[in-house]
Amino acid sequence: MDMINFEALFKISYGLYLVCSGDKNKGNGFVSNTVFQVTANPPQFAACCNKDNYTAEVIKKHGAFSVSVMDKNASAEMFGTFGYRSGKDFDKMANMDIKYGETGVPIVMNDCVSYMELRVVQTVDVGTHLMFIGELISAEIIDDTKEPLTYLYYREVKKGVAPKNAPTYVDKSKLIAKPAQLELKSYKCLACGYIYDEAVESIRFKDLPDDWICPVCGSEKSDFIEI
Amino acid sequence: MDMINFEALFKISYGLYLVCSGDKNKGNGFVSNTVFQVTANPPQFAACCNKDNYTAEVIKKHGAFSVSVMDKNASAEMFGTFGYRSGKDFDKMANMDIKYGETGVPIVMNDCVSYMELRVVQTVDVGTHLMFIGELISAEIIDDTKEPLTYLYYREVKKGVAPKNAPTYVDKSKLIAKPAQLELKSYKCLACGYIYDEAVESIRFKDLPDDWICPVCGSEKSDFIEI
């Protein structure tokens, strides 16, 4: 039997999106890298959402969602807000530039290149996640001078990692260990969960300058713990 | 009501893959840009396939498929073979470097960066397409020095277009016409169906050099007709 080399999965290309739902009273959303077109006629798109994710509940209730394509230069705060915190007791939309779609769902306009609004036509249970398949009801460019952020750029340049409930989360213990990496350590940001892994960085954590900040949420070096 | 600006859909990021199925006697496959991970535990991936596409039939029969991540420098012949021709009466695997997976499906190794083999666990009817959801049974890097091809690179650098039965095919008449484009023409490659659209190119077709060849299949300029 062949083995699974999880490194091979990193070769799948993704963009990064804000998938949002709800209404004017209460909106919520999360950063997703698995939004994709499933048919051209009519235009339908799918998005996967962890069942434990509050947004899954909100999409089920409202029967619609929006997808905003994140800008390559989206600020760290966007990841802090949408990527690592639950919106159950926190209004993620509070400081955002929001447009409300035809279905009433919030559409994040800041730090984004384009958006789509979709009405759910099918919900597929795929195990840990629900896949919402939506028919496109509107789409517009927000700023054509901006470039879409890709997951590759996020990982390589922004040093971001997938949170635990993402479809593409990889348990590092499953990766093939390289002997030289065995003595290397990992450090976790207590604010957003970002992992600084010495095995993939060129600088030891202790050698980072004191004013170094978390590339995801901007927390200070002292907010990290060894894991 | 908001309108649909189809240009906004071009901001969704995709990779390009060879999705194959069948066995040693008869294998088939096609170029897909909609392969994506749907869960991490277990690792499951989805791929959409047009119902009219011969590969859909083959995947249904074999209950398994392979996904090879195309190399950024994949040759034009790969697109000619897998992107624009039907495998019904033609052996697409004939000149390929093939490995056969645990399920017996062919896995294309040449011009590719990594591969995955998947067993179908769920088939979702999404209208014009079938979405095959497969559980990962093997994955391996083929060549780590190669970079994955993205749809953006294919469109911008290789000047490729989606064929008619792709989930991301866009009927150009739906794009917002720019006045300056109205007098521009399109030319179609009779061999592979590739469209040279003056509205998106910087050179008129007639001004292309005589030794210009189709970027997809390598056919000569004289094999193009005005459409």
From TrEMBL, chains A, B:
UniProt-listed Pfam families: Flavin_Reduct, Rubredoxin
Name under which the protein is recorded: NADH-FMN oxidoreductase RutF, flavin reductase (DIM6/NTAB) family
Domain Rubredoxin-like as annotated: residue spans: 184-227
Keywords tagged on the record: Electron transport, Iron, Metal-binding, Oxidoreductase, Transport
GO MF entry, a single one: iron ion binding
Entry annotated with the keyword Chloroplast: no
The UniProt record lists the keyword Oxidoreductase: yes
Organism: Williamwhitmania taraxaci
